[in-house]
Amino acid sequence: MNANQPPPLVDYNLFEANAPLREAVEREGASWAHDLVQELGRLAGKQEAIDWGFQANANPPRLRTHDRFGERIDEVEFHPAWHELMRVAVGHGLHALPWREPRRGAHAARAAAFYVWSQVEGGHGCPVSMTYAAVPALRKSPEVAAEWEPLMTTLDYDPGLRPHKTKRGVLFGMAMTERQGGSDVRSNTTRAEPNGANGEHRLTGQKWFCSAPMCDAFLVLAQAPGGLSCFVLPRVLPDGTRNAFHIDRLKDKLGNRSNASSEITLDGAWAVLVGEEGNGVRTIIEMVNHTRLDCVIGSASMMRQAVAQATHHTANRSAFGNLLSEQPLMVNVLADLAVESEATTTLMMRLAGAFDRSNDPAEAHFRRIGVAIAKFWTCKRAIAVVAEALECHGGNGYVEESILPRLYREAPLNSIWEGAGNVNALDVLRAMQREPDSVTAYFEEVERARGVDKRLDHQIDELKRELADSDEVEFRARRTVEQMAVVLQASLLLRHGEQSVADVFLSSRLVNDRGYAFGTLKFTRELKSVVERHRPRL
Ligand SMILES: Cc1cc2nc3c(=O)[nH]c(=O)nc-3n(C[C@H](O)[C@H](O)[C@H](O)COP(=O)(O)OP(=O)(O)OC[C@H]3O[C@@H](n4cnc5c(N)ncnc54)[C@H](O)[C@@H]3O)c2cc1C
Description:
This protein has helices spanning 19-27, 34-44, 47-58, 80-91, 97-100, 106-118, 125-138, 142-152, 280-314, 328-356, 361-392, 404-410, 413-416, 421-434, 436-447, 454-468, 477-496, 499-510, 527-534, and strands at residues 62-66, 72-77, 172-175, 191-194, 200-211, 217-224, 227-234, 245-250, 261-274, 318-319, 322-323. It contains 19 helices and eleven strands.
């Protein structure tokens, strides 16, 4: 007897079940990676992988500062489930695909694959993402990249602290944030003193947030004689001894519990300059741009998992004599969530495609502003979508086994790290001021749908008026960026989405013909089919 309880959402293919993602993979030139994404979709639907996600979060990492003889070791121990998750992620190239296969659609392929696999568990995406993102920053110093990149791009997950040249594969983290200032990295006080030839330095100072401290090496910002600079800092020195990278404690976090985030002290740690001295921000921003893309992918992935769970649950539970998914008010809520999820997935894939096409100046400019717009907006929306999808489950959604509490705790993180909301909104303004071509590229993109629907045409014109207004620009930044995000999503959905989805999006988001909460859409007959498009089938 199932007592009106839905069957678990298991043994289905997360890629096959996701029509907007499948369509976007084709559109963004990543169809050659179809088998990879499909395989990850299959694995992510397996009970075994789902269990790894729960186990890795129920058994968070533990810090071991010293060994039994009192020697510092600064190691972090993980549950075996974490290692299984990492093995799948690295084994399928989620940390390196575009660098391994630099072909058309590679970033889009990776985005789709990362999105599918992250639905099992978000925390382990952190070192995967940072390793992927570190490569373009390291390339600022070709000789440094030549040493590390071959090891960062193997498909071998080889945990444990050993000299990198003895390992089959390595992972990277980043350490920018300090206690006195995170967003404002120019207030960093960690010192870098020259120590020999070839850019070698000794780093001394503390970092307030350093995630995945068990990684093999880190990109670190520190003050060199010539100003704030970027360094590569290995955990283990070439002679096999430990670098002076001490983990003071692990953070007790709201969510993201499978992953370790630490406070560290660098006590004269050996490191090598990457990029030009004094150009640290310009160097590490290459990494930040890619991790920001991953914040968008992560938020899209969480939304999708939440919507998949909600549409599945409500299609298998009855109340007051009818399935929840048949009740008009629940249809309104589910369709609203589904539309948001589809708009985010479409935007994420368009952005990943821009990373693939960055050799085209227009795409590079679009990418510059698009990342900041999308990070601001999608990370914010994920929080609201997950909370509402949780409620669709009633009391079951408040219980850990449903996965929704874990998603709920994870959701705010993407909006904080790699630039919190305000910082991203202000970054859009910076792009507009310093790189006006990025605004041109943005409008070229949204204008592609001009003439298709007059509601969009009108909002594009409104947006242009908004941007021309020079009063209190900084104060209005969130409002401006929000509008830019919604206009972009509307344009993409009109060109590429289902007609019914685009229509709901435009009437509810673009012209605000709705209330404030989810589930306040105006009635249309198509809402049920919107929900069905997003409901996974077992
Ligand atoms: C779980 C977790 C893991 C992390 N891992 C890492 C890591 O591995 N490496 C690393 O370097 N960092 C890491 N971080 C740090 C993260 O990137 C910072 O917390 C983030 O950049 C914000 O910096 P801050 O905490 O100093 O906040 P602050 O800079 O003090 O910002 C506080 C608030 O003020 C806002 N704000 C800042 N400037 C302005 C302004 N000019 N106008 C208006 N509002 C403004 C921000 O948007 C934010 O809302 C991690 C954080 C978390 C939560």
